[in-house]
């Protein structure tokens, strides 16, 4: 029987996401990346991305993580998926503006609305599963002292987006995001458990959790990568409250192996 990823509740939103979500930085951005192969990284061609998206669909991946700060990722997803974008739960972000060399941040209400409208247009859809604050590493200010979250909640009430989130870095920021948002996006893997309390609090409050950097951006796959992947998956999905893992691969074989490894984990 064909391998299909299990669906998991996305907090209290009523949505269900596949255990693995496709992270899309490497589809659209070639500069300032954290990956071991970042030096000289060349964006994949349409055929490679198309194969990846087709493999994701076959495995039952039903959600995507993207962002305006991921260069051409949103536009490429819109173009390559076409009408099939409506079969995907698309999560994007707002607040980080990357000009190809450096990032600046704008969490004003006006920029937030414009950013979401531009994402909808690039992606070719009229509704997003979620929009998260794309917080800088000092994340508290953008969560508590800006108009962005309020504007996102307004856009949710208006029906443009189905959930509001924040991608955070600090423990305090993650805990605050769990109070204020429908979902949080935090780094977590077998060697980095600093955000465990955020995941627990989010679960207690009925919030969803997207794990990012599950393999430490590919920097924690030393030795036998497949064994390392299994170790990280076990740590991530051993945490009650994790909704899904955003996996930042450009390699269809890696995606398939990850789905197989997840299926082989002890329940
Ligand atoms: N601030 C934020 O909001 C934020 C920050 C970071 C990440 N994210 C999101 O989270 C996603 C995941 O994070 P991430 O991309 O930093 O890291 P990640 O998923 O931990 O790692 C991705 C890296 O691991 C490599 N990899 C994956 N499986 C592999 C395997 N079986 N063998 C060897 N290498 C493998 C990938 O290379 P291949 O392409 O060769 O597979 C890629 O370079 C991102 O795509 C993005 O959507 C958000």
Structure characterization notes:
With 267 residues, the chain is α/β, with parallel strands linked by helices. 38% of the residues lie in helices and 18% in strands. The strands form three sheets. An eight-stranded parallel beta barrel has the order 3-4-5-8-9-10-11-12, surrounded by four helices. A two-stranded antiparallel ribbon has the order 1-2. Strands 6-7 form a two-stranded antiparallel ribbon. Helix 8 links the parallel strand 10 (183-187) and strand 11 (208-212). Helix 7 packs parallel to helix 8 (196-204). The chain is globular, with a radius of gyration of 17 Å. The protein binds NADP nicotinamide-adenine-dinucleotide phosphate. Residues 23-26, 34-35, 65, 134, 167, 185, 212-218, 221, 225, 229, 246-251, 254, 257 line the site of NADP nicotinamide-adenine-dinucleotide phosphate.
**Spatial strand arrangement across the major sheet:** 3-4-5-8-9-10-11-12
The CATH homologous superfamily name equals NADP-dependent oxidoreductase domain
The bound ligands are: NADP nicotinamide-adenine-dinucleotide phosphate
Element-by-element helix/strand order? EEEHHEHEEEHEHHEHEHEHEH
What is the terminal separation in angstroms?
A: 19 Å
At CATH level 2, the architecture is: Alpha-Beta Barrel
CATH overall fold name: TIM Barrel
Largest sheet: 8 strands, parallel, barrel
**Overall SS class:** alpha/beta
What is the helix tally?
10
Determine the fraction of residues in helical runs and give it as a percent range: 25-40%
Q: How many structural domains does the protein architecture include?
A: 1
Label the overall shape.
globular
């Amino acid at each position: 029987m064909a391998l299909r990823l299990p669906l998991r509740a996305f907090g209290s939103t009523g949505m269900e996401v596949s255990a693995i979500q496709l992270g899309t930085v490497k589809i659209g951005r070639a500069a300032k990346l954290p990956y071991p192969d970042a030096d000289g990284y060349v964006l994949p061609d349409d055929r490679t991305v198309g194969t990846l998206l087709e493999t994701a669909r076959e495995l039952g991946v039903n959600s995507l993580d993207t962002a305006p700060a991921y260069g051409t990722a949103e536009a490429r997803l819109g173009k390559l998926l076409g009408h099939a974008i409506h079969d995907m739960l698309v999560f994007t972000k707002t607040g980080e503006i990357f000009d190809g060399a450096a990032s600046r941040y704008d969490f004003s209400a006006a920029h937030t609305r414009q950013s979401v409208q531009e994402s909808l247009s690039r992606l070719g859809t009229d509704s997003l599963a979620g929009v998260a604050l794309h917080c800088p590493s000092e994340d508290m200010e953008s969560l508590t002292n800006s108009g962005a979250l309020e504007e996102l909640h307004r856009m949710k009430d208006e029906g443009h987006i189905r959930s509001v989130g924040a991608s955070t870095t600090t423990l305090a920021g993650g805990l605050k995001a769990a109070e204020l948002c429908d979902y949080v996006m935090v780094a977590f893997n077998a060697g980095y458990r600093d955000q465990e309390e955020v995941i627990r609090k989010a679960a207690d409050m009925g919030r969803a959790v997207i794990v990012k950097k599950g393999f430490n951006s590919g920097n924690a796959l030393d030795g036998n990568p497949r064994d390392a992947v299994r170790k990280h998956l076990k740590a991530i999905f051993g945490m009650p409250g994790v909704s899904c893992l955003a996996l930042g691969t450009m390699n269809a074989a890696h995606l398939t192996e990850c789905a197989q490894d997840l299926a082989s984990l002890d329940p």
